[in-house]
Amino acid sequence: MTLLKKIEGSLVPLLGAEGFKKRSGEVFTVELAEGFVGWLGLNRAKHPRGLELNPVVGVRCQELEGLLSTLLRERPHKYVPPTLSISLGYLMPEQQYRCWVLQEDAVISSVADMVAAIVRYGVPFMESACSLSKIGELLESPRFSSAENAMYRRPLIKWLMGDREGALEVCASSARQFDERSDLAAEHFMQFARGLESLGNQIDA
User: Does residue 123 sit within a domain?
Assistant: First the structure.
């Protein structure tokens, strides 16, 4: 049995006992409040002594991500991407990057330690972020999201909370940085901005 198979054989049952469902790749989800899903991704890298895993935990707001897919004319996905996420180590007392190196002779104990940390530090974070207002607050911090990720989601949070004017203002403010650009990233965001504006016009009509 390969090291990867040993890890999966230990990891999936332990996470399953905590309510996590295995998805494709290295992604797991857990049901939280209605419309919100707890998200776990395991970044994997080779290590001289085995395999390195870096857990990334987050929350996905299904309504927000569904609307984003619609505006971008993309096929909606059930669990990718998370609305916001953070490497687990930054939620732990040390507040720094943390990975687990899994070796052939200590898979079970290492996996158990990692799952315990996910349950102790990751799950409470997921549960605390199950509202649009909390996600909006966290997206203001670069710790929880890249600037690009927040640029799409901040206006949608305002929109879904009923502040349509504020949503369009935030979107327009972000769009101004693309005024002199014609690359794919610029076109992608401008398509989003046009979609949001058009949605507002449809409601007003």
Answer: yes
